Amino acid sequence: MSCGKNNNSGSCVIDILKDIVDAQNDVMHDCTTSCEQSIADLLGDTGGGSGFDTVPVILYCKDGCKPFKGFGSTRSGNDCEVRGSFFFRVKSVDHDGCAILELLFADRWGRDSEDDEDEVEASRHHRGHDPNSPADQSCRNLRASGICITVDLNCFCHVTCLPAAATL
């Protein structure tokens, strides 16, 4: 059984994520569910061009059906910083169900020079640096991080789509 519009792999999560990749690629030229609505919004099906380029997703692991948090690192000079996120942009999905996901963070994260030091530290802890749940991470003004991970989509039982956004 498939729940995606254009794909029928037999896995609902894989089919929805493939639909999201197809819709995102169209935008970038390279019963209604929240995912279907977000895809329609991304494509501008709800009236005019949307200006959106991403359907942010939260994935839930089969084992215990808990939200999946991905980790990746960035390098700044000689420093390496590990960041965690529950929000992802699907970059690609292959035939075997492997996907490349990009971690998304609120655009406020890391703007040290413009913010009070205590506020920046609180923002890092509660809004994207290492959140404990999706509710700890701001989903306003999500931005692409350039941090990508590879996952096996067969390990997930559920996908939640956030409203379409302009992340690039």
Brief write-up:
InterPro entries: Spore_coat_protein_Z/Y. This is Spore coat protein. With 168 residues, this protein is α+β, with helices and mostly antiparallel strands.
Overall geometry comes to globular
What integer value in Å does the Rg equal? 16 Å
* Strand line-up across the major sheet: 4-5-6
Mean pLDDT across all amino acids: 80
Largest sheet: 3 strands, antiparallel
Count of strand segments: 7
Straight-line N-to-C gap: 34 Å
SSE string, helices as H and strands as E: HHEEEEEHEE
Number of helices: 3
Instruction: Tell me the fraction of residues in β-strands, as a range.
Output: 25-35%
Poorly predicted runs are 109-128
Assembly state of the chains shown: single chain
Tally of individual domains: 1
Structural class: alpha+beta
Task: Give a verbal description of the structure.
It is globular and about 45 Å long. The chain starts with 11 loop residues before the first helix and ends in a 7-residue tail after the last strand. Strands 4-5-6 form a three-stranded antiparallel sheet. It has a two-stranded antiparallel sheet with strand order 1-7. It contains three helices and seven strands; from the N terminus they run H-H-E-E-E-E-E-H-E-E. Strand 2 and strand 3 form a beta hairpin. By secondary structure, the protein is of the alpha+beta class. It has one domain.
